[in-house]
Design a protein that fits this description.
Distance between the termini of chain A: 55 Å
Distance between the termini of chain B: 18 Å
CATH architecture of chain B: Up-down Bundle
Largest interface: A-B, 62 and 57 residues
Mean pLDDT of chain A: 91
Largest sheet of chain B: 2 strands, antiparallel
Structural class of chain B: mainly alpha
Number of helices of chain B: 11
CATH architecture of the largest domain in chain A: 2-Layer Sandwich
Largest sheet of chain A: 3 strands, mixed
Number of domains of chain B: 1
Number of strands of chain A: 11
Oligomer: heterodimer
CATH topology of the largest domain in chain A: Alpha-Beta Plaits
Helix content of chain A: 10-25%
Number of domains of chain A: 2
Strand content of chain B: under 5%
Number of helices of chain A: 8
Radius of gyration of chain A: 26 Å
Shape of chain A: elongated
Low-confidence stretches of chain A: none
Order of helices and strands of chain A: EHEEEEHEEHEEHHEHEHH
Structural class of chain A: alpha+beta
Radius of gyration of chain B: 22 Å
């Protein structure tokens, strides 16, 4: 079964919020209606977003690391928000695994948001219905767009390519390979929601070098001048060995 | 969780209504078997069912304020196979209908005897309809409780005690109201209802005490480490992706000061348990209608605070992502 999802590389994300603005720009003109913005230029601005970039500091100064953490609906394979919905407005598509809210059926009771441990759903202040990431369902199948643009707006916008998009159930897809080979993980596995979106951890490009490797203890010692240079007349290693 | 007054009024009003109906029906059932004196069908049962309906309708009206789109509320009966909220939406009007039918049967006196026991006890139509309403009462208690208990992420609620508490709180306040009602009607059931209201209040003191005890020792499964998937004991949030609040900060945090939070707990413990017990005992021994009405009102106000605390105490795992602006 197809399960479309995002894979977000925390090793690459620089926290620029380009995905947030691109998402808002695309989805505020989406079929489910605009995304509310209250007091955008005054005190206490607030609004509806599908995607937010949060920032965490790991460790104690000076040994700290800043982690930028983009968070949107994880399109769980076992979404807890779907069965609790009293109207059936919240549903998971069989065809591609995207979790959506039917804007015509939602009564705005917020019960689904109680069931989501990730806080991925936001009630729109103006329309009074639940809003959430659609994986740009109105983009990814749009045949009027060039094929390379049939991706979620956030993926298109990311300048560092920290966001990958694809079918996580296809073992040969870019996202499945990234999860498999770069240690992709899921958020809050304790709730058994099986999020489809995965995160790639911070990775350090480091190798372990032992001291004997630094001096090339085996061969050739003479290169390090630990032993006197052999005479030019002496046979070389190549000449006396049989390889 | 942020306590929503619509839901606080919904759950306390329908709880009292259900408990009140159960009290009346228990009275009727016992009178059939000659355990209790018979009551006037119009002034006791029909008027009682009207009071039950007023409470249930008031609760239903309150619930509409919880919806963003109340005009679409009819859709919410659709997913009864999976959603406890949907089941409640079905159980509540069904209960209203059967209580109305029960009251109407008493009011019109259209109460044919369906069959009778050899002892002389007669089962009439109102007893059958009331029996259906009783089952629906318990079904509604189950639905209301399970709406909260089935959300496993809200660990403070995810316990069978939630359902037990909703049922017993509704029963206690309903029997309190029935005691005052019986005293007003000059019925002989005052002591019967009064003693049961005391028993139920003591029972719910034990079960609510157990849930408070449990919640005080609760270990939350989610931590910042599992929330962002980084194994480190010292993680601090520096930004949540919004400069001011969002739905996530408004809906999932109670926003009350620690002092208010703590005082609500002690005040509700006082108003729901010892005060009504004192008032109802004094009212029963003095035969005072005023004291019995006061017992119900004091306990009801206490229940409003209990429900506020019930919401405020629940700590949603999404709050881990919204620690600092």
């Amino acid at each position: 079964m197809t399960q479309l999802a995002l894979v977000i590389d925390l090793n690459v994300c620089v926290g620029c919020h380009a995905c947030v603005t691109s998402c808002k720009e695309w989805n505020t003109s989406g079929t489910a209606g605009w995304l509310a913005d209250e007091n955008p230029y005054s005190k206490d601005p607030t609004g509806t977003f599908f995607n937010r970039v949060q920032t965490f500091e790991v460790g104690q100064f000076p040994n700290t690391e800043t982690v930028h953490f983009p968070k949107s609906c994880l399109h769980c394979e076992d979404p807890p928000c779907v069965p609790v919905c009293p109207t059936g407005a919240s549903y998971k598509r069989e065809s591609d695994g995207i979790v959506l809210v039917d804007s015509e059926k939602c009564i705005g009771c917020s019960y689904c948001s109680w069931a989501c441990p990730y806080g991925a759903r936001e009630l729109d202040e103006h329309q009074k219905i639940m809003k959430k990431c659609t994986l740009c369902v109105d983009r990814i199948y749009d045949e009027s767009l060039p094929e390379q643009e049939r991706k979620p707006a956030c993926v298109m916008a990311c300048p560092t390519e920290a966001r990958l998009f694809g079918n996580v159930n296809d073992p040969d897809s870019e996202v499945a390979i990234a999860i498999r080979e770069s240690g992709g993980y899921q958020l809050m596995p304790e709730w058994g929601t099986k999020p489809a979106n995965h995160y790639l951890p911070r990775r350090k490009a480091s190798i372990t070098i032992h001291e004997d490797e630094l001096v090339r203890a085996d061969n050739p010692l003479k290169k390090e001048r630990k032993l006197p240079m052999p005479d030019v007349e002496d046979p070389t290693l190549d000449e006396i060995s049989s390889w | 969780m942020h306590p929503a007054f619509s839901v606080i009024f919904l759950t306390t009003l329908i709880g009292a209504g259900q408990g009140f109906f159960l009290a009346l029906y228990t009275g009727q059932l016992d009178s059939v078997f000659k355990l209790l004196p018979e009551q006037d069908p119009v002034h006791f049962y029909a008027l009682g069912s009207l009071i039950t309906l007023v409470l249930l309708v008031a609760g239903l009206v309150a619930s509409f304020f919880h919806l963003g789109r109340p005009e679409r509320a009819w859709r919410s009966a659709a997913r009864w196979r999976t959603s406890w909220l949907s089941r409640e939406v079905i159980a509540l009007p069904a209960l209203m209908g059967s209580v109305a039918a029960w009251g109407l049967i008493h009011y019109l006196g259209w109460n044919p005897v369906l069959f009778s026991f050899s002892t002389g006890a007669e089962i009439d139509l109102s007893l059958l309809v009331g029996g259906v309403a009783t089952l629906l009462c318990f079904a509604l208690f189950l639905c209301t409780g399970m709406i909260y208990a089935c959300i496993k992420m809200l660990q403070e609620w995810a316990t069978p005690l939630t359902v037990v508490n909703y049922t017993l709180f509704g029963g206690a306040s309903g029997f309190m109201l029935a005691t005052a009602f019986a005293a007003w009607q000059g019925s002989g059931l005052v002591n019967f209802f009064g003693i049961w209201s005391i028993i139920l209040t003591v029972l719910v003191f034990l079960t609510r005490g157990a849930s408070l005890f449990r919640n005080a020792r609760l270990k939350h499964k989610s931590t910042l480490e599992t929330a962002i998937g980084i194994r480190h004991a010292g993680i601090q949030q520096k930004g949540q992706g919004a400069m001011a609040g969002s739905f996530n900060t408004r809906h999932f945090f109670h926003g009350a000061s620690p002092r208010k939070y703590k005082s609500v707990k002690w005040v509700f413990l006082l108003l729901v348990f010892p005060l009504p017990l004192l008032l109802v005992s004094a009212g029963l021994s003095a035969g005072s209608l005023g004291l019995l009405v006061a017992a119900f009102l004091v306990q009801y106000i206490g229940l409003l605070m209990e429900r506020w605390f019930f919401f405020a105490q629940a700590n949603h795992p999404q709050n881990l992502y919204y620690q600092t602006v």
